[in-house]
Amino acid sequence: MKKILVCEDESVIRDFVVINLTRAGYDVVEADCGETALAKYDEHNGDFDVAILDVMMPGMDGFSVCKELRAKNGGLGIIMLTARTQEMDKVTGLMLGADDYVTKPFSPSELVARVDALYRRVSLAKANIESNFKEEIKSGDFVLNLRNRALMKNGKMIELTQVEFQIMEYFFSNPGAALDRTDILNHVWGEAYVGEEKIVDVNIRRLRMKVEDEPSNPKYIVTVWGLGYKWDA
């Protein structure tokens, strides 16, 4: 069963999300605050594929929950719920390890489509691990392990989220090639993705903080002005 954790303090919105995800075939566990969400995550031994977290909640906010969950599980799919006016919240959530965000108000079809897309990425990762998929891709000082979806730099492990791994896999498969933002978006998030293209830029910022010696002066993930990015190792 596809299992999802929904953390939203407003009962009307939470019920709306739970009903629609249940209809879409998900096993939903709900929480009305951040503290309860973390408790239920532990209670279920982390057996979740995706978590949906509201940003603005009393007590422990969605950012804090996202950070805690990401520390517990690098493979968990995380979607943040943000208000239309909370532009910085979108960036902050992604920088803390979220994979995507959905802006309120949202339609049932949009929410389910975003969850389905993220679930597919998470389930693919699990399938590769369970099948003992051992292939590696080497690029300069880096080794991308396709089985455990991790990146090594000079023998040191760099933990990646699902989205970060897919971007790096795309880079490694196209070394030195200038990749258009739209191509990256379609490859990682899917052609049916209805979000904003800037999600690519935020994830690149996060990746540079992990792989670059000097993130402000990148030499591996290079900006191709007017187009996108390229991997140069």
Describe this structure in words.
There is one protein chain. The model has no long low-confidence stretch (mean pLDDT 88). Strand 1, helix 1 and strand 2 (26-31) form a beta-alpha-beta unit. The protein has 233 residues and is α/β, with parallel strands linked by helices. The chain has eight helices and twelve strands. The protein has helices at residues 11-23, 34-43, 62-72, 87-95, 108-130, 162-173, 181-189, 198-211; strands spanning 2-7, 26-31, 50-54, 77-83, 100-104, 136-139, 142-145, 150-153, 156-158, 179-180, 221-224, 228-231. Helix 2 packs parallel to helix 3 (62-72) and helix 6 crosses helix 7. It is globular and about 50 Å long. The strands form three sheets. It has a five-stranded parallel sheet with strand order 2-1-3-4-5, with helices on both faces. The protein has a four-stranded antiparallel sheet with strand order 6-7-8-9, with helices on one face. It has a three-stranded antiparallel sheet with strand order 10-12-11. The protein folds into two domains: 2-127, Rossmann fold; 134-231, Arc Repressor Mutant, subunit A. The termini are far apart. 43% of the residues lie in helices and 23% in strands.
Distance between the termini: 41 Å
Helix tally equals 8
CATH superfamily of the largest domain: Response regulator
Total beta strand runs: 12
Proportion of residues in β-strands: 15-25%
**Assigned CATH class of the largest domain:** Alpha Beta
Q: What is the CATH architecture term of the largest domain? A: 3-Layer(aba) Sandwich
How many domains make up the coordinates? 2
How would you classify the quaternary structure?
A: single chain
Order of neighbouring strands in the sheet with most strands: 2-1-3-4-5
Q: Quote the average pLDDT.
A: 88
Radius of gyration: 17 Å
Helical content, roughly? 40-55%
What structural class do the secondary elements suggest? alpha/beta
The H-and-E topology, N to C, reads as EHEHEHEHEHEEEEHEHHEE
Q: Would you give the CATH topology of the largest domain?
A: Rossmann fold
Report the uncertain regions: none
Q: How many strands, which pairing sense, and closed or not: the largest β-sheet? A: 5 strands, parallel
